[in-house]
Amino acid sequence: MAAPRVRIAVQDLAKTFSEGAREVHAVAGVSFDVADQEFVAIVGPSGCGKSTILNMIGALVTPSGGRILVDGEPVAGRAPRQVGYVFQKDTVFPWRTVERNIALGLEYRGVPAAERAARVKEAIALAGLQGFEEAFPATLSGGMRQRVALMRSLVADPEIILMDEPFGALDTHTKLTLHAELLTLWERKRQTVVFVTHDLSEAITLADRIVVMTRRPGRIKLVYDVKLSRPRDVIRIRETEEYSREYSEIWHALGEEFELGEVQPKASR
Known about the structure:
The relative contact order is 0.17. The chain has about 270 residues and is α/β, with parallel strands linked by helices. The longest helix is centred in the last third of the chain and has 21 residues, at about 240-260. The protein has two domains: about 1-80 and about 160-170 and about 180-260, Rossmann fold (3-Layer(aba) Sandwich), CATH 3.40.50.300; about 90-155, no CATH class. The protein is globular. The chain has helices spanning about 50-55, 100-110, 115-125, 140-155, 170-190, 200-205, 240-260; strands at about 5-20, 20-35, 40-45, 65-70, 75, 85, 160-165, 190-195, 210-215, 220-225. α2 packs across α3. α5 links the parallel β7 (about 160-165) and β8 (about 190-195). The strands form two sheets. A six-stranded mixed beta sheet has the order 6-7-8-3-9-10, with helices on both faces.
């Protein structure tokens, strides 16, 4: 059986930021691959370079060393066309309605109006936003705004999605609801996903593999294959022995990094 093709190859990646005369070594010697249709999560202590790695894959930050290949082509200067990005903040435009926020990327790509309207309508239905098409972000809850931001990326049908703690600011109930919705969408479309999070339980719930980072400068401490079967019930999965075993095995490695950094973890079980 042929191995899945590699969509993202991160090779000996490093990043150093300069702050005046001071240099901050954010990431050093990071290498991993992401296969086609794979859901990979990156976890680690605050400041370990998780978001920096994601931003380098998305061409928002230039590496200091190493290289990144997307579908075999070096990432240099601009994000590959097949890549979509969901940011930590919802990043919706307050002067645009739900419908027009979701349509924004399609407008930039020059998608014809009729096709654009059909794709936006489908996205609104998938996200459960019917009835809010003409609403402005100020009238929406945080979870609804994040749905809008997510669908704005997904409506363009990116083959690869980069997600930077998109649910980190939400309450537990809303977060679990969006976990379920994200998994439903992913099972349907099977994009390749790289997902950054502080929350180990979130990573286990969503991902096929988890990349565990050390404290700064961030290096890979462990790459863990999540063995939980799919599809996953985001509520009931936490009550299983399999989930508890996976959590304990990963936490053994991740918890050491929190102790070394003398910080309190944000992960919640």
